[in-house]
Amino acid sequence: MALSLNKPKLDNLATDIWKSAERLRGKFKSYEYQSVILPIIVIRRLECVLIDWRAKKSAEVLKNRPKLTEKELAKLVKELELNPKQCPFSNTTDWTLRSVYEEDHALLEENFRAYINGFSKNVDDIIEHFNYRATIGLMVKNNRLAPILNQYKELALGPDQLSGLEMGYIYEELLRRFSEQSGEEAGEHFTPREVVRLMVELLDIPIPDKHFSIYDPASGTGGMLSVAKEHLLERADTSEEKARVEKYVTVHGQELSPTNYAVCQADLLIKNDRQATVHLGNSLIPHDPHSKEPGDQWPEPKWRFNRMLSNPPFGVTWGGKDGYEKEARKLEKTRYRAGMPRVNDGALLFLETMLAKMAPPEEGGSRIAIIFNGSPLSNGDCGSGESEIRRWILENDWLDAIVMLPDQLFYNTGIFTYVWLLRNDKPTSHKACVMLIDARQQFEKEPKSFGNKRHRITDAHRAWIEERYAKGWAKGYADEQVKIFPREDFAYHKVSVVFWQTDEYDQPAIVTESYEKTFTAANVKKEQDFHESDLTFRVRAKAKGKEKTVEFTVKAKDNAAKKFKEALADADETLSVQWTHRHYVQDDEYIPHGEDIAAFLKREIAKPIIRWEETQKDGKTILGYEILPNKYFYRYQPPTPAKDLLEEFWKLEKAAESMLKGLAGHS
Predict the structure, then answer these.
(1) Which CATH architecture has domain 7-163+171-178?
(2) Transmembrane residues, as ranges (predicted)?
(3) pTM of the model
(4) Which CATH number fits domain 185-487: 3.10.20.120, 3.40.50.2300, 3.40.50.300, 3.40.50.150?
(5) CA proximity to 493, closest of 604, 600, 609, 377
């Protein structure tokens, strides 16, 4: 099966559906459009599947029992439909959207609700997650039920007209338009199928001969899981291999959005994939049966997965009053023990969740493909949550490669993105190394833009990336777009250094200046600890209504608090303070791992070094980690010579003059 899309056809269909949403203007608020449109699309698609099943089953029954009357046939087929072993879902009524619409409109709501209520429980759960029964009431109130039913009663949405891949595109294109219409900040970025296909192929999923599991903690409408399974079936050369895929491969997902979850469940029902399970809930928090918000339904260590892939929301907020920080921190000592990122960007929590669910190497190990924006590469200073997570990943030698993708690949954002590839079963040639692949130029223009998506990856571009990932590890392989680094190359020392500033004669400086901080014994003690040298204070103060000047010196080993209190014992009010001290400067230096720190400081600062200290955690010195792919693939481009710029300027000047003369001639 081909994974290509007839995008003009799909875009036309999405536009036709979108027109029906625009008819809701004035009756519904923009953020309510999807609650009307998406459920009716899902219901119509399910209905198309049922109609097709009934027709095929009727022909099958008649072939064996040709003398059945029409009434007997209808009754028998209905009985078969209501048997879950025969049909994955059913409807106890004889209604369709068309027959509901063509019946008496005075009974329209009653008949439509009867039709909705006639679905089997698995479809009813989908309708409930759309909260569609409440929406029906709003459609009736606003006189929109009849127009909507008329719009969709014959729309060709069956699997014979639209594959699961194509229907997934329609869902996601509509969700993109709905989010834009309602002015939402798009935290969800639907993954183009060519990017999913790239991720799936980079994961090198085998045709299994035993149970093999695939997992996505932010499964959206199920696109990644679907493409992974479709790709395996496409690769299977024989019926025996296809049977092994169907028998052994199980896919597992979790989705936070009820709407996306409902769409995903409908797709699974239509495919009748009994080896796929997607749960509703937040995969980043522990599950509490008594909580209103379901948590992780695939908790470790019970659940381990062979392959994992995901495109988690970019910049998702998990802290604050609208977040779930309290619940997530219950896993701080276990799943998130490496660290927790800043509360306004939880992307790395998804990666930690996936890493916690890796199967051990002795059981086959696990591989992960995850899409990030640039933030997880370098956000956070040494010792911060983000840096500590990167340190944990790199020091455990799990990061295998990062692929730099072109910009403008996604529907809701034009930014550059990166595919991280991780595994806990690295072959010897990969050990303690990370490959970077610069694929930013591997794209072609979309014939027509889809939101922010103006570029696409073709089969040739995908093959280019896959070849470099597969062959780039070999000794002697040379390609400017592929670089392999020892993991230590991403490490750095963060050093807090105090040095003695010099004066205009390049001599260690002593300065006298106003003391701008609050003049207290505690602050004087802090200055003493920092300078570890003589400090002289001249204090203008009031004592018993008279002004006086007090001068005192605090030496390195003096009791600073005692000196302060003795000198100002009778002072009622401090008016001003000047102090004389060595001109010490404190700064942070970021030093590449492997450098001699003392030599680096001496060379780079070129001032008398008083002391320095590396960042520590729990009493131990730690390294910071950041990955800056752009730096490694930077190519210097010299500026255009001034002569050429002037020449271009005069050409433009002459062209402008010619245009002005032409305009004057027509005036």
Answers:
(1) Up-down Bundle (1.20)
(2) none
(3) 0.85
(4) 3.40.50.150
(5) 600
